[in-house]
Specification:
The protein has 381 residues and is of the alpha/beta class. The protein folds into 2 domains: 124 residues, Alpha-Beta Complex (Aspartate Aminotransferase, domain 1), CATH 3.90.1150; 231 residues, Aspartate Aminotransferase, domain 2 (3-Layer(aba) Sandwich). Helices cover 38% and strands 14% of the residues. It has a 7-stranded mixed β-sheet, with helices on both faces. Strands 9-12-11 form a 3-stranded antiparallel β-sheet, covered by helices on one side. Helix 2 packs antiparallel against helix 9, helix 3 runs parallel beside helix 9 and helix 4 crosses helix 5.
């Protein structure tokens, strides 16, 4: 297994961050923008649909929470709403003390290696899927840790047997992501939890796409017990609230308590009105089901459009991305072709790790009228 450093120490010894991957798509965006009707950007998973009415109402009414400093750990209403949602949706019983709030999930993902290393300075390794959200590796890099990718199998699922025991002995944590970004696979979360408990390695389960599980029921690592595991969630995708930055983590009581206390000292706080809106969003399932139906329909439509161009694509097991093999193995060539012919901007698979080369990720985040435009362009190809 090979450790990965995503940054560069620089000639003077200081850290030089790598290019932000989506900035590398500027040329494709310019090409797509030159077509009549402009670019249809499917490169980033940015929600494009309306904020649910129940959330907008709660946000507009939340004047009192805007005045005082909001609780860093999460308001009582938000923590209760998280526990209620876990119980109803995932059949997982939690207590508010097992939950903490975060400012969207990305800041938590990137910051966890630093605070975990303070907790156990004798460990220095972050394990994460070799094809995955780049922030897992970036978090390790920024904490001065080893970022060690774990192989995935032919179905894009984490291969626990590929983890070197020498790396496991040094591991601060193991990241799992179900449904996975970018390939949409569903890992065996029970096996991951057992692997971590046997070795004393916290298993961190990124479950932000759980409401968009197409193959079977939504699943959480917490269904297999909370000891030694942490589930990380966000309202950005399920409720179209990426701009409010409402996320939460839940699980092992001791680990949650540690994180809550450290984060209070760091000053991480979701704004009070956003916490009120988050509680309202978690209490309403109807808008989530409507959003899931939108994404599923768009994914099916994109599969059909690509198929008509001779580009094979299949529905994922979960999430709202298509993970598509480039016909000739050249992801950048396919990226250019899609920009030139369909006016869509997609992400080359190497953004998600070297093992992703030869694929592109396509996010179903365009409204139906924009997909109509893509279909018109496809009809002329």
């Amino acid at each position: 297994m090979t450790e990965v450093a995503s940054g560069d120490p620089g000639s003077a010894g200081g850290y030089v961050p790598p290019p932000y991957p989506y900035d590398l798509l500027d040329e494709s965006r310019a090409v797509a923008e030159g077509l009549p009707g402009g670019a249809v950007d499917l490169s980033i998973g940015t929600p494009c649909d309306p904020v649910p009415a129940v959330v907008a109402e709660a946000l507009g009414a939340a004047t009192d929470p805007a005045r005082p400093y909001p609780p860093s750990v999460g308001s009582a209403d938000l923590l209760d709403a998280v526990c209620g949602w876990f119980d109803r949706r995932l059949d997982v019983v939690l207590y508010p003390a097992q939950v903490g709030a975060c400012i969207g999930s990305k800041e938590l993902v990137v910051g966890l290696p630093q605070v975990l290393r303070l907790r156990d300075p004798f460990r220095d390794t972050v394990l994460y899927p070799s094809i995955s959200y780049p922030s897992y590796a970036m978090g390790a890099d920024l904490a001065g840790c080893r970022a060690v990718p774990v192989s995935v199998d032919a179905d894009w699922r984490l291969d626990l047997s590929a983890i070197d025991e020498a790396d496991a002995e040094r591991a601060l944590c193991l990241w799992v992501n179900t449904p996975g970004n970018p390939a949409g696979a569903l890992d065996d979360l029970g096996a991951a939890a057992e692997w971590g408990r046997e070795r004393g390695v916290p298993v961190l389960s990124d479950e932000c796409y759980v409401e968009f599980t197409w193959d079977g029921e939504p699943r959480s690592v917490l269904r297999y017990g909370s000891d030694g595991v942490l589930a990380v969630h966000s309202l950005s995708k399920r409720s179209n609230l990426a701009g409010l930055r409402v996320g939460y983590y839940a699980g092992d009581a001791e680990l949650v308590h540690y994180l809550r206390e450290v984060r209070r000292h760091q000053g991480f706080m979701i704004p009070g009105p956003a916490q009120a809106a988050g509680a309202a969003a978690l209490a309403d399932q109807a808008h989530v089901e409507a959003q899931a139906a939108r994404y599923h329909g768009r994914l099916e439509r994109l599969v059909g459009l690509l198929g008509n161009l001779g580009i094979g694509a299949t529905m994922p097991q979960g999430g709202f991305y298509l993970w598509v093999a480039a016909p000739d193995g050249d992801a950048w060539a396919l990226t250019r072709r899609l920009a030139e012919t369909l006016g869509i901007v997609v992400s080359p698979g190497e953004f998600y790790g070297p093992d992703g080369a030869g694929h592109v990720r396509i996010a179903a985040v365009a409204t139906d009228d924009r997909l109509d435009l893509v279909a018109e362009r496809a009809g002329r190809v």
